[in-house]
Amino acid sequence: MTTFPLVEEVAQHPSRNHRHQAESAIVTARDLADRFAEDSALRDRERIIPVAEVEALSDSGLLALTVPEEYGGAGLGAAVVAEVVRLIASGDPNIAQIPHSHFVYVNAVIEQGTEAQKRFLLGEVLAGKRFGNAQSEIGSKHVRDHATTLRRDDLAVGDWVLDGEKGYCTGALFAHWIPVLAHLGEDGPLHVAWVERDAEGVTVIDDWNGLGQRTTASGTVRLDGVRVAADRVTPYHLTFDRPQTYGSFAQLLHAAIDAGIARAAVRDAAAFVTTRSRPYPDAIALYDVERAADDPLVVRAFGEIELQVRAAEALLAEAGRAVDRARADLTAETAAEASLAVAAARASTTSASLEAASRLFEVSGTRSALASDNLDRHWRNARTHTLHDPAAWKVQHLGRYAIDGTRPPLHGQI
After folding, report:
1. How many domains does the chain have?
2. pLDDT confidence of residue 145
3. Which CATH number is 18's domain given?
4. Who contacts 366 (Cβ-Cβ below 8 Å, separation ≥6)?
5. Cβ-proximal residues to 170 (8 Å cutoff; 6+ apart), any chain
6. What is the Cα–Cα distance from 93 to 100, expressed in whole angstroms?
7. pLDDT (0 to 100) of residue 19
């Protein structure tokens, strides 16, 4: 089994508290983010799929952060993982989005896997294996409508055969295992079929052509008579029959990606205005400034953007803590509080990422619009990723709770 720094540390020092492990994870994420930022504009421009970067992320051990301690992992909470994802996204949000489903489906194993399934699949994670996703279907009536079905295998009693086509399969191209969401039998409940990336009948197509998040390789997965052993199927529907943090955790990581995009936009705007922008003539005449960065209108605009981004980051951090509190004492009320905290974070990070990525040009001036600098990738990334779930529905659920205490639904998308 391959070992990685963070996992190895937990194994050698099981009595060390989570604070030290969390600090180590955040330092690692910050270092990787700096590395990923260096060529992020080039990868976007040329649509270079970040294969080496994803391998570096795996090698760091960060993808095993949420494996429980009893299964050999660090067992770190949602707040730490959200900060790790935010930092990675500030370097390159494409790379941060690729393992989103990995973390979510690690939770799926923990939530509904048998003991044998947990030992095996979580062991795969500790060995550096990555989970992808084959969940959404482009031709379906809505995002929670699925036609893909597991049918009985005529050649092996108890086993299954999987047919279907999935879209927006972020992470599948880089995955060792692809969790596929499918009905168990005709019109049966939803289950997760754990399919190996190179299994016969599995085709992963890199046909993603979004205007932003261009290098996530969020393409198509086709499943043609894929055989699935009985012990590679786990329930999915049962997760939502009771209070849960499965959905709020998944949404939290989406918010972290948007917060990272917002911070990257502020960082690049500051770098541009301090090195390449020219001061406006009126600022020179009235305030005797020598740099565009000293123009009081520019400074004020930066202050407004920074305020909005800091507020989004604070809501993200609080949402992570709310998910962790709910996990520690899971009730209908704590699960609802976690969902509402995450809803607030998602609405806020949506606005902050779009605003920061747009106002980048306002504060930087005409030169910042040159295609050669590719600064528009921040807005394209924000606009594309924030479409994942409508922010307006986050606000709607917050409003209903504020008015009459109506808890958000348990479907896992809030």
Report:
1. 3
2. 83
3. 1.10.540.10
4. none
5. 97, 98, 100, 101, 132, 133, 216, 217, 218
6. 11
7. 86
Q: Is residue 69 part of a domain?
A: yes
Q: Please check whether residues 306 and 335 belong to one and the same domain.
A: yes
pTM exceeding 0.85: yes
Angle (CA) 354-358-360 rounded to 5° is: 120
CA 369 to chain centre: 28
269 lies in the same domain as 376 = yes
User: How far is it, in rounded angstroms, from Cα 326 to Cα 349?
Assistant: 22
Summarised one tens digit per residue, pLDDT across range 139-165 is 888 877 899 999 998 888 889 999 999
Output the pLDDT for position 330.
Answer: 98
Residue with token string 């600064």: 375
d(CA 62, CA 212): 25
Task: Name the nearest CA neighbour of 39 among 355, 385, 379, 377.
Answer: 377
Residues of the chain under the 50 pLDDT cut: 1-15
Sign of CA dihedral 382, 384, 385, 391: positive
Domain match, 379 and 251 both: yes
